[in-house]
Amino acid sequence: MFKIKKKIEKPKLPVLYNVIEDYSEFDAPGNVTACAMTHLEDLPGHAKILSESYGVPLATMTELLAQGGVYVYPAEGGLLTRGLFACVIDPAGVLPKRTFVLDLMQFAETEHLARARSLPMAEAAYEIFHRTLPDELKEKLEQKNLGLDYRMIDRAVAKGGDIKYIDFRKDWSPHFKRLCIMPDGRLVETGGLEEFAQLHGITLAQAKQLIEEGGTLEVGAEVLACQIVNGQSSVARFGAKNYLKAKELAASKGVHILDALSEVAYNDPVMMRGLVRKELSGGR
User: Which of 104, 135, 202, 236 has the fewest CB atoms within 10 Å distance of its CB?
Assistant: First the structure.
């Protein structure tokens, strides 16, 4: 007898966004992706994803999304290494809920502004955050529903009504597919860090460090290379032969291994095909 194997379905991720405005190529710190939703908020699902993405306790994130406010990241070893996460909710209910993160410098500016003008931290944080955004995005934020023409957009999006919330994101989450160039020139999409780690046979901690800090990570005889530009990570995996070429090039020319790997990639017609496809796809 033949046994019929049932396909094990993975639990579906909550659908958090149906409107995406990508400004990730803009100068930091305004290089954000505006992720919006017209349907009613799935608060538990929303809180879970943002909690995991930003390292904020789930209970705290749930409270922030329900009431608004800020979460200041705790000091590590007596030093502040991260800024804050903020959720701004319009008391009048006219503007959509907005979430974003600030780096250390923006956090310091927020504290100064809050003291100088006696503003709530969340309000001061949004003012500091808004200053850095691209002019095009600022203009859209001044318009209702980011200026979308509901007669022209997808009916499934339009039937949700007005935009309920906007997450201004920079992180690599399950909701953003990133492209990795493989040694054979293929472009492989991955979402969250867990999926990326599984693809390359590395630990979640290794994946997180590579994506957040950039650099290289040896995987057997091969190597993963990650370059970060404007806070956005770009990843390629090099086969053993090309990795050896890059190490020899780095030694002979006295250049950084990432520069050597880039040169090897540009001289490899197979990887170049993948790079061209990545550029045509917008790099995400």
Answer: 135
C-alpha 253/C-alpha 147 separation (Å) is 52
Digit-by-digit pLDDT tens for the chain (284 residues) are 445 555 555 555 567 888 988 888 788 889 898 999 999 999 999 999 899 888 899 999 999 999 999 999 998 878 888 899 999 999 998 999 999 999 999 999 999 999 999 999 999 999 999 999 999 999 999 999 999 998 888 888 889 999 999 999 987 665 566 778 899 888 888 877 788 899 999 998 898 888 878 899 999 999 999 987 655 678 899 999 999 999 999 999 999 999 999 999 889 888 887 666 555 454 44
For the stretch 125-128, contacts whose Cβ atoms lie closer than 8 Å and that sit 24 or more positions apart, written own/partner, are 125/70, 125/84, 125/86, 125/88, 125/100, 126/86, 126/88, 126/98, 126/100, 128/102
Do 194 and 240 fall into the same domain? yes
125: phi then psi, degrees, rounded to nearest 5? -60, -45
CA distances from 268 to 28, 83, 185, 239 (A): 31, 41, 9, 11
Q: How far is CA 181 from the centre of its chain?
A: 18
Contact 128, 113 (CB under 8 A): yes
In a domain? residue 2: no
Is 238 part of a structural domain of the chain?
Answer: yes
Where among 152, 169, 186 does a domain terminate? 169
Terminal-residue alpha carbon distance, the chain = 46
Q: Which residue has the tokens 């370059």?
A: 227
